[in-house]
Amino acid sequence: MFEAALWGGIAGSSLLLGALVGIFKDIPNKVSAFIMAFGTGVLIGAATFELLSDAVKEGGILYPSIGFLLGATLFIVAELIIMKKGGHERKRSKVSPAGHAGIAILMGTIIDAIPESVIIGVSLLENHTVSWLIVIAIFISNFPEGLSSSIGMKKDGYSKLKIISLWAIVMLLSAISALLGYALIDTSSQHLITSISAFAAGGIFAMVSSTMMPEAFEEGGPIVGFISALGLLCSLILTFYG
């Protein structure tokens, strides 16, 4: 349980790291977009090679398919709710048009982070060792989110202490989610485990498609397509050698 919480916290720590860089350093939006594009490719690879394909291999096609669609659906429904509160700008390094959307930004990031962290605990249950690909993918993808969101919150007038506190809470929740994923999942039910893996994959795909990809392209231009492909190739190589 401690190991699950540790790796969940490490994966989520890049949110806080990105926030610190965004607060104290002036990072060009294009650089943030390139990091986000690479993280997008890594996350897609992790969801495909590590989560979805393994779920189908071990649990058949039916339950993983249902879990995948439920994960994507739940994320989009939650995203629609967050949009109405102004949290859809959480990955943007500009002033939020809604203004004072700190709580919505926090909730939106939690919606991104919890399924990713839970699957760290599940992978530890399945393989008795952490999935390095999942941890690396989450870490890389979280950094530009913390970076760009914190720049936007700073422009909205939030204090440095408040911004850091928000991301520290998310990092803590990431650790708790990974711990719960390890402690509460019934390992005797293969259908449950494969469904949860596919559920997380569906949420990841919906998240990168609706938030990370548009932001990366808007700020970085067409070159981000190539950078995303590099991230996907990185996932493939890590999967092959892992």
UniProtKB/TrEMBL annotation:
Cellular localisation: Cell membrane
Residue ranges spanning the membrane: these are 6-24, 31-49, 61-82, 103-124, 130-151, 163-185, 191-208, 220-241
The organism of origin for this protein: Bacillus salitolerans
Which keywords annotate this record?
Cell membrane, Membrane, Transmembrane, Transmembrane helix, Zinc
- InterPro entries per record: ZIP
Could you confirm whether the keyword Zinc appears in this record?
Answer: yes
Q: Which residues form the signal peptide?
A: none
PANTHER family hit by this protein: ZINC TRANSPORTER ZIP11 (PTHR11040:SF211), ZINC/IRON TRANSPORTER (PTHR11040)
A Pfam family hit:
Zip
**Family statement drawn from the similarity comment of this UniProt entry:** Belongs to the ZIP transporter (TC 2.A.5) family.
Q: What is this protein called?
A: ZIP family metal transporter
Topology relative to the membrane, per the entry?
Multi-pass membrane protein
